[in-house]
Each structure stands twice: as structure tokens, then as C-alpha cells.
Amino acid sequence: MDSSNRAPERAPRPGAPDPLETPIPRRRVLLFLGASVLATGAGLGAILEACGSVAPVAVTLQVNPATMPPGVPVEVPFSMTNSNGAVVQTSMWILKNADGSLTAYDPRCPHAMCAYKWVAAENMFKCNCHGGEFALDGTVLAGPPPRPLNKLPITDQGGVVTVEVPGDFVTPRASLSS
Ligand code: FES
What we know:
The chain contains 1 helix and 11 strands; from the N terminus they run αβββββββββββ. By secondary structure, it is of the alpha+beta class. The strands form 3 sheets. It has a 4-stranded antiparallel sheet, with no helix packed on it. It has a 4-stranded antiparallel sheet with strand order 5-6-7-8, with no helix packed on it. The protein is globular and about 85 Å long. The site of FE2/S2 (inorganic) cluster has 12 residues, from loops.
């Protein structure tokens, strides 16, 4: 094709400033830097919050692992004072595994924080708020929960069972009746 058919390049208007040569006003640079610092600060705050910067609370449970049946979750009451100074009284599910180790489940459904129950007849945990169902190991079987049941660090030292509960723990929402 003949190059003479191409559209002619635009010539700059006489007297118009060249954008590559025009300096950016100092005030605009400072405004941009200030907004960037604020945005970064807010982002860091969100990240720290998401990382759980609140220290966990060690709670000793009134349970005797020696008398627990393996493979059947047991509901164990506990109380604690959370990082806001509120006294929380609720319960959590403790599972004695086949090898004798223990698993502690956060008693709040990972969907919308409702309390859930172990239903022995169906061999699963069930959350009546929205129909969430979980296997013995906490994996999701059905319903809207986006992830498995949360497990809490647990130790058994000669029968003294201690669980690390998140410092900002709050009571689960009441389960709807089935
Ligand atoms: S809160 Fe458990 S299924 Fe919605």
C-alpha cells in the first residue's frame, strides 16, 4: 500500500505545552503521595486484623480423655474472658481420635457463626441455620459453608486438656430449631 494514503500526523497546536516537557505541580505530587500513604496504612490495618493479632486464650477443659469414646464427638462446656473483657460461656466439640489424640472444633459454623450439633444417628455435624453438614473430620458435606469446621490447637498433658481459643472469640449465634 502506498504510504501516501496514511492519515497525516497531527501537528501540535502552536503555543500548546508539550505534555512530556510540562512539570507536574508540586502540590499534586504531595496529594498523590499522601493518598498513597493513607491507602497503605489502611491496608496494613486490614492485614493485621485478618492475621488475628489478638492473642489466643488458653482454656482448660473439664474433660477426661480416658473416658471419652473414640470417634464420637463430645460437647464440652467452657468459659473464658475475651479480649473485649466479655465473659463467654458456651461449649465446643472435642473428638477423641482412634490414636488417642484429640481434635477441638471451633463451635461456630464457618458459614455465619451459628452453633451446630453432632447428630450421632446421621454420623455428621449439622447446622440448622442454613442446612450446613460436616463430616466427623470437619469437612463440608452439604450446604453453604465455604470451608471445613475450624480446628483449635489442643493439648493433652496427662489428662489436663487445654485449648487455644481465639482471643476475640464471641458466643456462636443460636442455632435454629430443627
Ligand atoms: S451458619 Fe451454619 S449453615 Fe449457615
